[in-house]
Task: inverse folding
């Protein structure tokens, strides 16, 4: 019952390349490929001609040369004699630092605001809506600059901490919030602190082990073991005991005012702090909307069904609502993390030395290696985003509704 | 019936009681407040905290607005008048409004031109945004880009006119041969347009005085005008490119698909600021040595590439949301690819993706402030650069940033409200 037959063999005509749908796609693809290669050859030949005219070449040797500039906020050792590569690494770490801190704070603020936007309290609801609308509809660059201006203008200068009745004072003698930046106490690890650390890690492993055991007990025997308080106890008690037994090996170095400035402790410059705050509250406004949408996406029937099964409210939340809401919330949440990481490149506007500030800023201007620097810069961000999207896809596949 | 219970009960009411007003605590404002402001101890505390917070903000900002000074010419003068009292020096806005809106190089006697262009922008965009307006207004929308170019950049009207004629002739040629195949018609239209542009170039340079406005070079654009120009130009250019990219990504031809995928993922993976670096320092290496493209053109190229990748993803979402039956129905009617896309698929897919496209547009408009990082003087660049660095206004942060926040908020909030309204409109259609 063949209803059609193949066209007679050997009757290929050139016009089939255009008119026959079987061959047409090959024609188009070959044309596209030729156009692409043509365009690329054109661009590259222009590039080579321009480079030759300017007496330049493409080379990454500058990465090994001394950078010759200082970076005022570093996570690893760096001085002006270090190489450009080292400066770029400092920048990468600074980018990752502000992105990590920002994601953390944005998630906390965003979840709180998102939940409060659904609160029965009219005033809170409206206040949160105003917050979300204001922050979503104004460029993040403006927020970064405003928060930087607020920090510099409102917070006291280190000299205000001087004297007996100073205008400003440190919080609990440990934290100093100044217009130049924040000073935190720094832990100092003495001999034996490794043991305390090991005990702490072991107790965290213990917490997970205990939780797994409790779950198994619940599923196998139907016995409900307390989980929360034993976890808290496991978290604190062994580490504190080890700390006391080893003779208090971990001390704190407090910042102290010496001369015109604070010395000691951890110093986070105002550029880092304001960038962190601005990125967090800007992204939090978007996350709040995602959280709200995620909670609203779960129908009320789910809560009622769970309640009719006899589950208590906190278990309804943990076992029924959250697992479903998270499936809706997490993909946009991760893309917000991605946005935050990409927006952290605006650090250059407040002088925080992230990768855009070091490699794409001073290194580029000093060496004049524009193409190489911008290429490396793009590759770094591309790697991060592709890594995050890969994680997101893996997560999406893991939580996807398994339908028959 | 009324005496049924006469033996067993002492009294039975046999008429209805008149309806009584609910107790004071269960009606009106009191009930509303009990339910919405003080439903429990936690919420009561939250409400009180919120009221305190609002009080602090109002108490702090009201005198600042109320005592605001609008007429001085420098910060020192303004502080002298205030004598240490709280008050805003809004005079920076009255004195520098022209710089904030138009940048510091645009000739001040020509401000009416961008103003007219932006008022006409509203007219041109209206029929696109609101479907119930007369369709004939779309004609003006088609003419508008050329008119706006002439108004903002100046020069003879012949050059935008010739471009317009080229476009129209190309379109006419396309219509003429459309029946014999989409690809050939598109090629013919393109060739016609290019020939007319080429001829028009000679005409415009020969008769450069015809209806000429004072020419303003691109590098003199600045202030909020620059944000508006970048926003509108890049969004309107990136729409068609984004749609093509989305179609390419959905295509069955692997090479075309992969070209589109690589482009989209690359652009979406890097921050806009690196693309602006490319525009600033790298892009000119890729053009022939004698070309001298303006920074603003290079920036427009990069922002357009950026926006089209995002729009492509939104449109792809719309294409994927269409049921397969639509594609199959188009095929079974015997439509070819171009026809089925143009007549069946895209009208539906674009309708679904309008809210997403509007979101991209808002995000893009906000991102135009990033050009201040590569030393272009848009609104943010003007504030950070010439105004805050001037001796008269060094230190006027709140008034200037407040102005910037307000300007962007009005535009972006307006657009996002429109998007929500549209979403509601579209939802109703499906019921």
Result:
């Amino acid at each position: 019952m063949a209803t059609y037959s193949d066209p007679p063999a050997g009757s290929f005509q050139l016009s089939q390349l255009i008119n026959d749908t079987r061959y047409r796609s090959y024609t188009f693809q070959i044309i596209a490929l030729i156009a692409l290669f043509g365009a690329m050859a054109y661009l590259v030949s222009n590039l080579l001609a321009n480079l030759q005219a300017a007496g330049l070449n493409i080379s990454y040797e500058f990465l090994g040369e001394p950078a010759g500039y200082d970076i005022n906020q570093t996570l690893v050792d760096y001085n002006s004699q270090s190489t450009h590569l080292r400066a770029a690494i400092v920048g990468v770490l600074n980018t990752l630092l502000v992105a990590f801190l920002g994601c953390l704070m944005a998630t906390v603020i965003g979840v709180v605001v998102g939940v409060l936007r659904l609160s029965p309290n009219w005033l809170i609801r409206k206040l949160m809506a105003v917050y979300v609308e204001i922050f979503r509809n104004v460029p993040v660059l403006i927020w970064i600059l405003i928060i930087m201006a607020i920090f510099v203008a409102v917070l006291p200068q280190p000299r205000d901490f001087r004297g007996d009745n100073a205008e400003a004072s440190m919080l609990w003698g440990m934290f100093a919030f100044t217009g130049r930046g924040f000073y935190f106490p720094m832990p100092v690890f003495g001999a034996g602190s490794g043991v305390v650390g090991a005990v702490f890690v072991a107790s965290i492993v213990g917490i997970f082990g205990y939780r797994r055991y409790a779950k198994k007990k619940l599923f196998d025997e139907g016995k409900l073991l307390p989980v929360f308080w034993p976890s808290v106890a496991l978290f604190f008690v062994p580490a504190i005991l080890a700390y006391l037994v080893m003779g208090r090996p971990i001390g704190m170095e407090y910042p102290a005012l010496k001369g015109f400035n604070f010395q000691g402790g951890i110093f986070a410059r105002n550029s880092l702090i304001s960038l962190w705050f601005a990125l967090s509250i800007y992204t939090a406004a978007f996350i709040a909307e995602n959280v709200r949408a995620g909670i609203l996406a779960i129908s009320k029937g789910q809560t009622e069904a769970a309640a009719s099964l006899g589950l208590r409210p906190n278990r309804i939340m943990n076992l029924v609502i959250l697992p479903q809401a998270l499936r809706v919330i997490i993909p946009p949440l991760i893309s917000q993390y991605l946005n935050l990481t990409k927006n952290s490149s605006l650090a250059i506007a407040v002088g925080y030395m992230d990768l855009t500030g070091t490699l794409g800023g001073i290194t580029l201007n000093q060496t004049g290696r524009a193409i190489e620097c911008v290429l490396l810069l793009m590759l770094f961000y591309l790697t991060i985003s592709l890594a995050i999207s890969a994680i997101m896809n893996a997560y999406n596949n893991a939580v996807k509704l398994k339908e028959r | 019936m009324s005496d049924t219970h006469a033996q067993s009960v002492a009294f039975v009411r046999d008429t209805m009681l008149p309806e009584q007003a609910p107790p004071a605590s269960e009606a009106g404002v009191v009930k509303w407040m009990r339910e919405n402001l003080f439903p429990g101890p936690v919420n009561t505390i939250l409400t009180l905290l919120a009221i305190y917070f609002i009080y602090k903000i109002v108490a702090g900002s009201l005198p600042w607005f109320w005592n605001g000074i609008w007429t001085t010419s420098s910060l020192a003068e303004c502080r002298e008048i205030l004598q240490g009292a709280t008050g805003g020096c809004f005079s920076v806005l009255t004195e520098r409004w022209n710089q904030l809106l138009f940048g510091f190089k645009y000739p001040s006697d020509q401000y009416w031109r961008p103003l007219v262009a932006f008022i006409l922008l509203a007219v041109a965009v209206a029929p696109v945004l609101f479907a119930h307006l007369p369709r004939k207004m779309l004609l003006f929308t088609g003419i508008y880009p050329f008119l706006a170019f002439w108004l903002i950049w100046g020069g003879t009207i012949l050059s935008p006119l010739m471009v317009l004629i080229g476009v129209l002739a190309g379109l006419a040629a396309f219509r003429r041969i459309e029946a014999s195949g989409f690809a050939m018609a598109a090629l013919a239209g393109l060739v016609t347009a290019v020939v007319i542009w080429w001829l028009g170039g000679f005409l415009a340079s020969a008769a450069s005085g015809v209806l000429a406005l004072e020419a303003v070079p691109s590098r003199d654009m600045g202030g909020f005008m620059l944000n508006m120009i970048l926003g509108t130009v890049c969004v309107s250019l990136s729409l068609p490119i984004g749609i093509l990219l989305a179609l390419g990504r959905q295509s069955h031809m692997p090479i075309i698909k992969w070209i589109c995928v690589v482009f989209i993922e690359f652009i979406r993976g890097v921050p806009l600021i690196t693309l602006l670096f490319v525009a600033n320092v790298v892009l000119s290496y890729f053009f022939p040595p004698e070309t001298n493209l303006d920074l603003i053109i290079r920036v427009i190229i990069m922002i357009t590439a950026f926006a089209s990748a995002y729009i492509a993803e939104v449109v792809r979402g719309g294409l994927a949301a269409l049921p397969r039956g639509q594609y199959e129905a188009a095929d079974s009617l015997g439509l070819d690819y171009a026809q089925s896309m143009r007549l069946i698929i895209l009208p539906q897919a674009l309708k679904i993706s309008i809210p997403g496209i509007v979101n991209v547009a808002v995000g893009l408009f906000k991102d135009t402030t990033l050009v201040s990082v590569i030393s272009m003087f848009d609104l943010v660049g003007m504030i950070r650069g010439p105004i805050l660095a001037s001796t008269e206004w060094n230190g006027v942060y709140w008034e200037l940033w407040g102005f910037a926040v307000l300007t962007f908020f009005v535009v972006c909030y307006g657009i996002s409200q429109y998007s929500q309204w549209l979403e509601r409109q579209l939802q109703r259609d499906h019921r």
About this structure: The radius of gyration of chain A is 29 Å. Chain A touches chain B through 52 residues (CB under 8 Å). The beta strands of chain A are 176-178, 181-184, 186-189, 250-253, 256-258, 261-263, 266-269.
